[in-house]
Design brief:
Low-confidence stretches: 1-26, 81-86
Strand content: 35-45%
Number of strands: 23
Number of helices: 6
Radius of gyration: 23 Å
Structural class: mainly beta
Order of helices and strands: HEHEEEEEEEEEEEHHEEHEEEEHEEEEE
Shape: globular
């Protein structure tokens, strides 16, 4: 049984790094627009990995296509104060819509022709914001622009509806003289149009920042917690995983999954012994830690996201599993021929998983089997896309050779070691470029290990040229490459033209 102090930690120490929402550049407080048209070419067998991942589910897995994208946004106003700085109005409102139409591949439930990554409204009062709808976000501590993908919530899957109350910015605690600040949030969501009907999302997070605003060194720590729960599916009927195909949704069940505690009884009228011995819902989250150093010209951040799915992960029995990264940001904007604006290196390791054996009688059960779940047969995914790090990919993305090994569940390769590097550079008289590259060794799962690891390399080179004095028109060109044994070998490219008002 989960110890009281772990249950308390799970319910009270919630975290995320600042959610990143794609927005056109314009003055706040007025309606802004963006329009983009583009085309993607790729091998018929599969689109290259870095061309389709961390795109909020808007790039199909297979096939060349044309795309048209339209955005409209109203962000909060800002107003100057006596110190000639900006601050938020006490009350304000906003909304966002981002629509994508893809033409070319045959539409499927996972890759429809029309998508709405953004369709939300928001209000803000003081330090708090309430929003409802779909919104592009990532959660975790790290580099939100160049990352390979945060472990629990990466921006790889299409957003789905939720209602969230949170503090968008860090809130300093007065009696600490601004030494400590926090961010907190709580959300309820709906897995709409999913393979299992009527399932929900529970999400919460809290972040602590330690260091006064004028200090060069800050420390961050916290935790995020997501739970998929409830729902009905025919494949559950007649199994010991549910009661007549329906998973528990009572208020008492909701309180149990919020805290991560076991139900009061091993079996009840709305749930079976599977929930009674494994807790209700599919739990995924990460502890996040970061050390940041700042000066006028540079920023460095060392971060780690420790993945967990049950009590063994919460108790760090699966160390060193998680994402570790080092971020560099160049704040020196002095004109030079070429300047590295941003760089990141990351290591994702998921080999431990609290050991190979799941033992229901043990204090820490082991066999964490990341992102797979017996009740939710497509695991931690939405419309075929991994919600967490895309480096743990679903079976449909793998080569025929890898899929000859039929075990392992929806995520048959969740034991891997992956190195990743990303770079953004700026030419004084030319484009902004972006590089991404990953190398991984892939071992399968404890239930279905591969006889030898499958190696994989994936890379991307992208360039973006601004036009005009205001830089509101942008031409983007991208080329990608997959070589290895995990994914089908693939090359691809994308060209797009975007205008902002």
């Amino acid at each position: 049984m989960l110890k009281p102090y772990y249950a308390l930690l799970l319910s009270l120490v919630w975290s995320s790094f600042r959610p990143i929402i794609a927005q056109p550049l314009s003055a706040p407080g007025r309606v802004q627009y963006s329009v983009e048209i583009g085309g993607l070419i790729a091998n018929p067998e599969q689109t290259s990995f870095w061309l389709r991942t961390n795109q909020y589910g808007i790039v199909p897995l297979k096939g060349a296509f044309g795309t048209a994208r339209f955005g409209i946004l109203r962000d909060y106003k800002s107003r100057p104060d006596s110190a000639a700085k900006t601050r938020r109005s006490r009350f304000d409102w906003g909304f966002g819509v981002y629509a994508v139409a893809n033409a070319g591949p045959t539409p499927t439930p996972n890759d429809p022709a029309i998508l709405l990554p953004d369709a939300y409204a928001k209000i803000r009062f003081g330090r708090f914001e309430l929003f409802a709808g779909n919104r592009r976000e990532v959660y975790g501590l790290g580099d939100t622009l160049l990352t390979s993908g945060f472990v629990a919530w990466s921006g790889n899957a299409l957003p789905f509806p939720k209602i969230q109350l949170h503090t968008p910015d860090y809130v300093p605690i007065g009696f600490t003289k601004n030494l400590v600040a926090f961010r907190v949030g709580y959300a309820h969501g709906w897995f709409s149009n999913a393979y299992i009907e009527g399932s929900y999302l529970h999400q919460k997070y809290l972040y602590g920042r330690f260091g006064k605003p004028d200090w060069r060194v800050w420390f961050y720590a916290g935790l995020n917690h997501q739970v998929q729960w409830g729902g009905h599916a025919d494949y559950l009927i007649g199994t010991d995983l549910s009661v007549d195909g329906t998973l528990p949704t009572s208020f008492r069940d909701y309180l149990s999954l919020i805290t991560g505690r076991y139900p009061d009884e091993v079996q009840g009228s709305s749930y079976t012994s599977f929930d009674g011995t494994n807790r209700i819902g599919n739990h995924v989250g990460s502890y996040d830690f970061a050390l940041e150093w700042n000066d006028v010209r540079h920023q460095w951040r060392l971060y780690h996201q420790h993945i967990y799915e049950d009590a063994s992960g919460l108790a760090f029995q699966n160390v060193p599993d998680g994402l570790t990264g080092l971020q560099y940001v160049n704040r020196n904007t002095r004109p030079v021929g070429f300047r590295v604006a941003r760089a990141v290196v990351e290591l994702l390791g998921t080999m431990n998983q609290s050991g190979p054996t799941f033992d229901i009688t043990a204090r820490y059960q082991g066999g964490d089997n990341y992102f797979n779940n017996s009740q939710y047969i497509q695991g931690w995914s939405y419309r075929g896309h991994t919600i967490g790090t895309p480096l743990i990919a679903p079976r449909m993305a793998f080569s025929t050779t890898v899929n000859n090994y039929t075990g392992g569940g929806y995520y048959p390769n969740n034991r891997l070691v992956a190195w990743y590097a990303g770079l953004q550079g700026v030419f004084r008289r030319g484009p902004t470029i972006m590089l991404r590259a990953s190398c991984s060794r892939n071992y399968g799962t404890y239930n279905q290990p591969y006889p030898s690891p499958f190696p994989q390399f994936s890379g991307l080179l992208s360039a973006q040229w601004p036009f005009g004095k205001t830089n509101r028109t942008l031409l983007t060109a991208t080329v990608t490459l997959d070589r290895g044994e995990l994914f089908p070998n693939s090359t691809g490219g994308f060209v797009g033209l975007r205008r902002r008002w």
